């Protein structure tokens, strides 16, 4: 999953309605800059901007969802992130439990073997040395 934390910063959005009066000065944009975004289609409400001389899509970010990818084609949600974190945590916990169980079994087997090999056999001995 891509890091989208930089998308949570406020970014200027185009106005939803054009101004009622035409601007007195027209900002001069090089035609190469505006032409770069003509061939880029950003999905899911993304906006094409020129970043370091390359057309890039700025994807929408909501309260509990965000779009990502080269063209904002993928969606990520808070629920997906939570499920991924929970699944990862449970997987690590499961591996730790298995390692603990295997370790305990190995220690018990080693202890049982050691106690059997070092056990004392007591027999009644007669005075003549024969049992």
Descriptive overview:
The chain has helices at 31-36, 78-117; strands at 47-51, 54-58, 65-68, 74-77. The strands form two sheets. A two-stranded antiparallel sheet has the order 1-2. Helices cover 35% and strands 14% of the residues. It has two helices and four strands; from the N terminus they run H-E-E-E-E-H. A hairpin with a 5-residue loop joins strand 3 and strand 4 (74-77). Residues 1-32 are annotated as: Disordered. Keywords: EGF-like domain, Membrane, Transmembrane, Transmembrane helix. Pfam families: EGF. Residues 12-25 have a biased composition (Pro residues).
Secondary structure layout plus pairing:
Layout lengths: L30 H6 L10 E5 L2 E5 L6 E4 L5 E4 H40 L14
Antiparallel strand pairs: 1-2, 3-4
Brief synopsis:
This is Meprin A subunit beta b. With 131 residues, the chain is an alpha+beta fold.
Total number of helical segments? 2
End-to-end distance, in Å? 77 Å
Widest β-sheet, arrangement of strands: 1-2
Using the alpha-carbon principal axes, give the shape.
rod-shaped
Largest sheet properties: 2 strands, antiparallel
Query: What number is the mean pLDDT?
Result: 79
Number of strands: 4
Helix content: 25-40%
Class from secondary-structure proportions = alpha+beta
Please provide the ordered H/E string of secondary-structure elements.
HEEEEH
Low-confidence stretches: 24-29
**Over all CA atoms, what is the radius of gyration?**
35 Å
Percent strand equals 5-15%
């Amino acid at each position: 999953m891509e890091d989208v934390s930089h998308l949570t910063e406020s970014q200027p959005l185009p106005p939803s309605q054009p101004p009622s009066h035409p601007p007195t000065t027209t900002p001069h944009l090089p035609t190469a800059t505006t032409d770069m975004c003509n061939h880029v289609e950003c999905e899911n409400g993304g906006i094409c901007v020129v970043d370091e001389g390359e057309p890039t899509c700025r994807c929408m970010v909501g309260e509990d969802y965000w779009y990502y990818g080269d063209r904002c084609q993928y969606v990520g949600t808070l629920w997906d992130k939570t499920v991924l974190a929970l699944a990862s945590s449970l997987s690590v916990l499961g591996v730790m439990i298995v390692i603990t169980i295997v370790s305990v079994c190995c220690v018990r087997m080693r202890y049982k073997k050691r106690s059997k090999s070092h056990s004392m056999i007591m027999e009644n001995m007669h005075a003549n040395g024969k049992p």
